[in-house]
């Protein structure tokens, strides 16, 4: 689902709950979705197609870079690793194809409490956007595998925001512009599991930038890159927002 819908009932207002921070931008893999190491497996398949032999120092160094830059747009990662735009695009296509095949194998699952948290956020009158560093075809494959096509108000990938993914603020600001859910960027909430999510949220001016400990980076990395809060999981986010209203 890529277009905003405006038919979510504002049950929070009806119940008297103040919902100042009405736009919530959530990362997918590691934050709301568990992929069981599929990024590493898809990268290994893609790298091998480009002649990077498994077990070599070059392969190990490239894989480590992929792990270190979790959360960043994958095409940006491949530009760094392979040096030319042609090779980067070949690597990215191979990666997306491999990841899509692995997703179809049923290895992607929701993180505990993630679906309920998104449903609660929307029931509280908030607009929810799901973002990813993957291409649209891969994002849609994940949403289809989970049955999440209509779970959020908006889904965004880097191409939807002019091509720049995290750590740039573009996807967060695109959600701000497309939804019109808030008038001030300080009323945006960003949540993710990586340093790049934190940087993206801070650069967008989000008032709450919450790190979650269910994915790639630890508390020190999240706070070191601008997290205003660190949560055990995204399941804690609805309560945090009610408390901070």
From TrEMBL:
<dbReference type="InterPro" id="IPR022468">
    <property type="entry name" value="PhnX-like"/>
</dbReference>
<dbReference type="InterPro" id="IPR050155">
    <property type="entry name" value="HAD-like_hydrolase_sf"/>
</dbReference>
<dbReference type="Pfam" id="PF00702">
    <property type="entry name" value="Hydrolase"/>
</dbReference>
<protein>
    <submittedName>
        <fullName>Phosphonatase-like hydrolase</fullName>
    </submittedName>
</protein>
<dbReference type="InterPro" id="IPR023214">
    <property type="entry name" value="HAD_sf"/>
</dbReference>
<dbReference type="InterPro" id="IPR036412">
    <property type="entry name" value="HAD-like_sf"/>
</dbReference>
